[in-house]
Design brief:
Layout: E1 2-6, E2 11-18, E3 24-31, E4 35-43, E5 46-54, E6 59-63, E7 66-68, H1 75-87, E8 89-101, E9 110-121, E10 137-142, H2 143-151, H3 158-165
Parallel strand pairs: 4-9
Antiparallel strand pairs: 1-2, 2-3, 4-5, 4-7, 5-6, 5-10, 8-9
Helix pairs in contact: 2-3
Length: 167
Amino acid sequence: MAIVFSGRVFSIDVEKVKLGDGREFQAETVRHPPAVVLLPLIDESHIVLIRQFRHSIGRELWEVPAGSLEPGESAESAAARECEEEIALVPKSIERLRSIWSAPGFCDEELIFFRVSDLRPRGPDSPHKPDVDEDIGIRIFTIQEAKAMADRGEIVDLKTVYALTLL
């Protein structure tokens, strides 16, 4: 295996793979740490979505908050941290729902979904602030509104569309 790129967010490796029948091929894999995906519920019928610019597609998107685990961090700790960083709220309840692979044909990123609720404002001394590359807008929607936005194609982020099916 050879790492051909290593960046701040992911790396790419190339390796020769041998199949059971003896055939060989070259596989390129994007290596990305696991990430948490949050369903921040204000109450049983309201969810917080964020709006942020995504450079890779050149536009702003409505999304659920999400972020990568830091080395040695548990998924539950990452869920609490990302909630504070992205929507300035601290969850009292963190419920792990399930995990999926984002794009297993070429990437090893695992997405771990959490329902976070009983949300309280973060304290003024909280060290958890948005990352330097994030300019996030926050808005509360009814779950029905958010699902309708996905149905109309106004929410086009796959992790968000899937997350809404868990509600």
